[in-house]
User: What shape does this take?
Amino acid sequence: MGQNRRQFIKNAGLLTSLLLSPSTLFASKEKLDFNISLAQWSFHRSLFKGEMDTFDFIKMAREKFDIDAVEYVNQFFADKATDKGFLNQLKRQSEDLGVKNLLIMVDGEGNLADRNKKVREKAAENHFKWIEAAKFLGCHSIRINLHGDHDEDIWKDAAIDGWARLAAFGAEHDIHVLAENHGQWSSKASLVVEVLKAVDNPYAGTLPDFGNFCVRREKGDLWESPCVETYDKYKGVKELLPFAKGVSAKAFDFDEKGNETTIDYGKMLSLIKQSGFKGYLGIEYDGDRLDEVEGIMATKRLLEKTRELINE
Assistant: This one.
């Protein structure tokens, strides 16, 4: 972009938001401090093609990228939640490589915010085994999708019930249940925060994602048709951060200077600094121009570079 270091920081909002805002004055004295983890979704193409498996993923995280913490996606071992042999092997591999198991992102287990109570109850029950698997693996959380009704008011009441039901089970196992902005009403961050406060359980939290802020698509679907209503990504991440137990550092593509072309990492990491978040930022490369290894490397470099710039 041809901008010098001072311009980069200014564009990231640091000079105004950190130096001038009384509410963030204390945070400005702190260093931006986070660890980097790797989300399994970053290898979704290779995993879906059968070119690698979950054990390869753990090994790649440590040996290829020097990353010591991982975030699983249940889609890649969907039938293994109660398979103690598989889970034992997974735990042993991560321990042998010195890799921490942070969380399991759970998909395909039903709509926790459906208007039908029986559907919500079944969806919650479907998630129980993943909470137990996460506990066995030494994770701190599972990530859920708050999908369900298209009517906002009905969705809100249903989401409170479904999330509360699951958070109560999570509390019994010391596992947090984290909602991600992941399409439809779950991408309206202010609404998710309202639901979270109503759930009122310390084991309910958030997993802010730098992307995934499409609230409504042309055909009402989750991913396929064009997005016609988007929630501001920076506003959304800021609203979700106070309740975050992790952050997904989404990336799609990069310019010639290594900056993400659709997400201002300076601005995102400034928000993280202001919030006081000190946990893991999980690399979630979701692009298709670079191959997966290149995309993960580029995201890691950008995170490290931006942290260095902000902390100068």
About this structure: Strands lie at 35-39, 69-73, 100-105, 141-144, 176-180, 204-207, 214-217, 227-230, 247-251, 280-285. Residues 1-27 have pLDDT under 50 and may be disordered. Residues 12 and 46 are 34 Å apart (CA to CA).
